[in-house]
Amino acid sequence: MKLPEGPFKAYLFDCDGTIVDSMPLHYIAWKSILAEWNCEFGEETFYAWGGMPVSEIISTLNTRDGLSMPGEEVARRKEALYFEILPELKAVPEVLEHIEFSHGQIPFAVVSGSTRDSVTSSLEVLGLLDKFETLVCAGDYERSKPDPEPFLIAANQLGVNPEDCLVFEDTEMGIQAATAAGMASVKVLQPWEREMSPVHR
User: Fold this and answer.
1) What mean pLDDT is predicted for residues 84-113?
2) What is the pLDDT of residue 60?
3) Beta bridge partner(s), residue 135
4) Prediction pTM value
């Protein structure tokens, strides 16, 4: 993973699919819960909607399929199932390298569409929680990615200008949000893209 030319004063990381290889686990949880409502949630759609808060995903599926899934209940059960399979969680190797290498040199933030509980639990499983100065999660902002608001809040909390931040993201929505915030970004490959590309050591 090649980083853009710096120097940068802060690194802002998306969580799911960027720091933690959690997207496959989230997908298992979604498929299992949505099957009860006969709601199709294709893998391509799931990844395309990466970064969208859970409540927004449920309301979008309801609108798309003419369903009336109870948002809070479905969200709660989906999160609960994710926590059950969380011990299987792994880190994304290339991103972990950058975290280990740069930790202590510049401040880090997590900027996520997931709940604070989900982000905290994922980072705790991997022993990474204490490496981040701040977490900006669903509920901490009004407008989710691709709006720049979540990234701008993180930069403000770190006391760093947006143009001095580098964003690590795995979704187009996240990259758009970073660009709109005036930040440089680096795209983290999706699991199947990582499998196809040769590993450079």
Assistant:
1) 95
2) 97
3) 110
4) 0.86
As a three-state string, the secondary structure of the chain is CCCCCCCCCEEEECCECCCECCHHHHHHHHHHHHHCCCCCCCHHHHHHCCCCCHHHHHHHHHHHHCCCCCHHHHHHHHHHHHHHHHHHCCECHHHHHHHHHHECCECEEEECCCCHHHHHHHHHHCCCHHHCCEEECCCCCCCCCCCCHHHHHHHHHHCCCHHHEEEEECCHHHHHHHHHCCCEEEECCCHHHHHHCCCCC
- Residue 190 to residue 28: CA distance in whole angstroms: 16
End-to-end Cα, the chain, rounded Å: 10
Q: What Rg value do the Cα atoms of the chain yield, rounded?
A: 16
d(CA 173, CA 167): 12
CA distances (Å), 88 to each of 11, 20, 26, 126, 145, in order?
26, 11, 12, 10, 27
